Each structure stands twice: as C-alpha cells, then as structure tokens.
Amino acid sequence: MTIRVNFFLSFLLISVFGLSSQRAYAQDNSLTAKEKAAGWQLLFNGKDLTGWTSTKGVSPDASWKVENGQLSLKEAGGKQHLDIISADEYSDFDLRVAFKLTEGANSGIKYFFTPYDEGGWLGMEYQLIDNDRHPDAKLGRDGNRQLSALYDMLAVEKKVPVKVGEWNEARVVSKGSEVSHYLNGQEVLRYDRKSAAFEKARQLSKFKEAKPAFGSVSKGHILLQDHGDIVYFKNVKIKAL
Predict the structure, then answer these.
(1) How many independent structural domains does the chain possess?
(2) Which of 3, 85, 220, 240 could form a disulfide with 112 if both were Cys (CB 3.0 to 4.6 A apart)?
(3) Rounded distance, CA 95 to CA 230, Å?
(4) Does 26 share its domain with 42?
C-alpha cells in the first residue's frame, strides 16, 4: 500500500511540474490581460517573423529563423548581414526585449531607426555584446561600446553583471527627449537627447556627420541587428507612452 501511495504521489508531482513548465513556456511571447489593457503590443509572436521587414527589400526569413519560440540568425558569420526592423515606427515608448548572448557575440537593439538625409539608415543602439570576449567591447571611449551602453555615445552609469548563455532583459524607455536604458530591471543609463552632454558625445562619435543631427529625429523603427553572431530573442514587446 505504501509503495502504491508513494508511486501515486510521485506521478502527481511529475504531472503538476510538467503542467507548470508548459504554462511557463506558454507565457513567453504572449501578453497578459493586464498588459493588453495597459496598451502593450507584441513585436514578436514567437511563431514567425510577421511584423518584421528589412531596409534591403529582402525577406527577414533569408537570414533569421524562429525555433522553440526564440528568434535568432540562422547561422553565424553570414556574408551578408540582414538587420530586421519593425513595420511600425515609435516615438514615446517602453520597449522590452529578452535576449540571450552566445560566447563572443555582438548585436544590438536600435530605436529611432530611420533614413537620414546624410548618413543613411541610422538609429540609437542599445548595445548587446559579450564584454569579456568580443574585441569591440574594448574599443570606443570609456566603455561606450559595452553591454547596455548607448553604442559609441554614452557608457553605462551602473554595471549589472550578466552571464553568457542565460536570459536577460533589455529595456528602453523614451519620453520626449529623455531616454533610459535598463538591464534586468535596473536602470543603467539615463540621458537627454537635447543636453550638452549628449551633444558632446555625438561630436566625438562616428555619427557626428549625420544630418539631421544624430539622435534628433522624433520617431523611428525598432531594429534587431545582424552582426554575424548568434543572439537569441523572445518576449519582444512595446507600449506607446
């Protein structure tokens, strides 16, 4: 009798754990009723690349894939890099993206991505990079090419440790001219696009020749960067503010 009871309890625990795991998985790439009511919008549905396009007239499926609810490049080291952008443009917003770096990876999340009169397609970049293994993290000024920095512009004001191969959350909040970067729930950088400090950083950056002035545009697309390295994405969502 004891053996049967123990077997039944073990089976029950396994079943409950399995159902809980399934529920947790189902929560990825979906919105709760509360989030929907608050105005959140999924940018990635976890199934395909609906809602994404590119600036090259090439289908995102050419270089990107969706597998197990995760979005990533099909392979590392591709000859032609194909960034993908959201179909819609955004101005004031709260953007959240779950990402997982692979060893030595470099990528990025760009916002206010739009064609400039001079400089081509440009956008502000939340840097995604393996700080310890990718050489670009050692370049730039004062760490402004490291994880969660405003790429080639402003370094983080607070460092949050992350582990390569684990899921993390990037968050960008833009309201008016003020922008904040978050990493795993902690604010790591805040800047004002109209400030003297921002203008100084712009003049020292690779974007100083852009016209209109880099970072001065009022709206743009969200971009996930193909830098030739594998980075996984999920739970990509945005709310207009």
Answers:
(1) 2
(2) 220
(3) 21
(4) no
